[in-house]
Design goal:
This protein is α/β, with parallel strands linked by helices. It is built from 16 helices and 15 strands. Keywords: Glycosyltransferase, Transferase.
């Protein structure tokens, strides 16, 4: 059986990180995960799922000492395939895999916008470095047709780009009236309150300040905002300035795969049940997972952009409405929903399209292309009709969804194989001579993202 290593920049609670965890539950192969930095809550979740997680303790973008450690780890693990996620991990992971002798190297581009990558501005140097690293891989996965088009516009050969959409476990989000009542009670909301919702990292690019202003302009409306990040204090101040601090509920990070460990903290699915309308005000998204989750919960959705549904016919997501970026337009749209009152919609066709089991099978099809003569798992099922999109690229076929066994976990060492590399030592203190070697190339985007809620990535 194929043995795969997934390398990711960090494992705080973010969309790419949680998507990796969800995918590994549906991959029929041995998978280990190595995080360069920040072994946060998602690392704990992966370990609970039985996945081996190793922290490389990388100290920064220019920590070149981490590269030979990574090469040694890959060699000792005797991995057949290396799959990288997020910018820094793609740069170092592709190079380390090649130096370690692994030829099957896949990278997923989770968060590439028109003018930024992973929430940070793009520059010519960042793009050039990305393209240089991309040539070391075997295939590049885009999470949407929109991201695939951006990669091709950068100069990535079309035949190397495969579209594997993000996925969700739709049953987890299906609406339940009892969950709604419980979640509202636990968040201090009455049964009759009109509740607007948002989920995502609290960063400027998500434009949650517009959502706060819009809800503040609607007397009696409440906002449930799940997520954390550097904008949290500014959003709290704004709510106070607008006299709406009692109606703007900044909930912090919430688990998208269930309620909190204490049993009393509603997770993302429960919070969606408590909402009456969902809003995604971000101008730029690579996919829009939070919108798909909201649709799975039967919510009407207002969004500025969402490639997950913008790339498809409107009939796939009839409950979603695209709006402009202005605050007044959002206020008017929310007022309309407030006047109509709470209503729940059936799960639309787009939810079935983005089933996580189907995404896992499409990823296995990509692995088949880079592992000639070796099958990573069961043969894919019959193909379904392809969605409307651009032709001429190496897009993986879309097999019918089916149940797959969970990824086996535990220590990956096999009898007779070299022992895995011991955990790296504690990194040197910032400012020490060994803490930040110079790297004579453009810097990758800054330090790993602050832990944030999974969806809205």
């Amino acid at each position: 059986m194929v043995k795969a290593l997934h390398i990711i920049t960090g494992l705080g609670v973010g969309g790419a990180e949680q998507q990796l965890r969800l995918l590994l539950r549906h991959m029929p192969m041995r998978c280990d995960v190595l995080t360069l930095t920040n072994p946060g809550p998602v690392a704990e979740g992966l370990r609970a799922d039985g996945v081996r997680v190793v922290h490389l303790a990388m100290k920064g973008n220019r920590d070149l000492v981490a590269l030979p450690r990574l090469v040694r780890f890959i060699r000792r693990g005797r991995y057949d395939l290396v799959h990288t996620h997020l910018y820094r991990a793609c740069l170092y992971g592709r190079l380390a895999a090649r130096l370690a002798g692994v030829r099957a190297v896949v990278a997923t581009e989770h968060s590439l916008g028109a003018a930024e990558i992973e929430g940070r501005p793009l520059s010519g140097g960042v793009r050039a470095l990305y393209l240089a690293g991309e040539r070391l891989g075997s295939a590049t996965v885009a999470v949407s047709e929109t991201v695939a088009a951006r990669l091709e516009a950068w100069g990535v050969p079309p035949g190397r780009v495969h579209v594997v959409p993000n996925g969700i476990e739709a049953a987890r989000f299906r609406f339940d009236e009892g969950v709604r009542r419980s979640a509202r009670a636990r968040t201090g909301l009455s049964e009759r309150a009109f509740v607007v919702g948002g989920v995502g990292r609290l960063v400027p690019g998500k434009r949650f300040d517009v959502l706060v202003r819009a809800v503040a302009a609607l007397p009696g409306a409440h906002l449930l905002l799940a997520g954390d990040g550097p904008e949290r204090s500014a959003l709290r101040r704004l709510a106070g300035e607008l006299g709406a601090q009692g109606r703007i509920h900044l909930l912090g990070e919430r688990d998208p795969l269930g309620d909190g460990a204490d049993g009393g903290t509603p997770g993302v699915a429960a919070l969606l049940a408590a909402m009456d309308v969902f809003v995604s005000p971000s101008r730029e998204e690579a996919f829009g997972l939070a919108v798909v989750e909201a649709l799975a919960a039967g919510l009407p959705v207002l969004h500025v952009t969402c490639p997950a549904i913008d790339d498809l016919p409107q009939a796939q997501a009839p409950g979603a409405r695209r709006i402009g970026t202005g605050t007044q337009e959002l206020v008017a749209a929310l007022r309309g929903h407030m006047e109509v009152g709470a209503r729940r919609l059936p799960q639309p066709p787009v939810v079935r399209r983005y089933d996580i089991a189907r995404s896992a099978e499409r990823l296995l099809a990509v692995y088949d292309t880079v592992l000639p003569g070796r099958s990573p798992g069961p043969a894919p099922g019959p193909e379904l009709p392809r969605p409307a999109g651009r032709d001429g690229r190496g897009t993986a076929p879309e097999p019918a969804p089916r149940a797959l066994p969970a990824a086996p976990g535990g220590d990956p060492a096999e009898p007779g194989s070299p022992a895995p590399e011991p955990a790296p030592r504690t990194p040197a203190a910032p400012g020490s001579p060994a803490s930040e070697p110079a790297l004579h190339m453009p810097a990758a985007p800054g330090p790993p993202r602050s832990p944030a809620v999974t969806s809205g990535e």
